[in-house]
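Per-record layout

source: Flavobacterium celericrescens
name: tRNA-(Ms[2]io[6]A)-hydroxylase
length: 193
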Amino acid sequence: MFRLKLPTDPRWANIAEGNLEEILTDHAWCELKASSNAIMLINLLPEFTEITTELTKIAKEEMDHFEQVHEIIKARGWVLGRERKDSYVNDLFKFMKPGNRKHLIVERMLFAAMIEARSCERFKVLSDNIKDEELAVFYKELMISEAGHYTSFLQFAHDLAEEGYDVKKRWEEWLDFEAKIIQSYGKTETIHG
């Protein structure tokens, strides 16, 4: 689906379901960070009107998803916990290559695409494997909704790349790197953990 080279073991859904309050809190923070990331990207490239318009939509949609997750947390009598460290995202961040402004923006787009791809894949694993019917339906709808973000970020990378920057080749490098680091994850009740 997202060309990820190492799919999530479906048993991860059992770990997640073992502590739904934790997975929902972690998920809520992921949505908030995704919205913040879209806003940060707008700050980096305001002169690209069409991309800024699309990033604005993504930021709003991610905030809407945050609100939906927060409503589920409240409806179940829980409270949104504090932000969790996301070691997976930190590991990915280290893979970005330095370069000029345009190069760094393209790297940020690929970084965002990678996170979106894995998040959507995890939403699919949850929707296909958890017994909680409400959350199974929620994660299926969310996966469909958010899948467009992955492709948008990849398209932005292609649109912004300077001549000589091979986005397709670099994306393959991202996929290879992500397959190596994801082996250390999938053992905790967090979206990327």
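summary: Residues 101-129 form the longest helix (29 residues). The chain has a mean pLDDT of 94.
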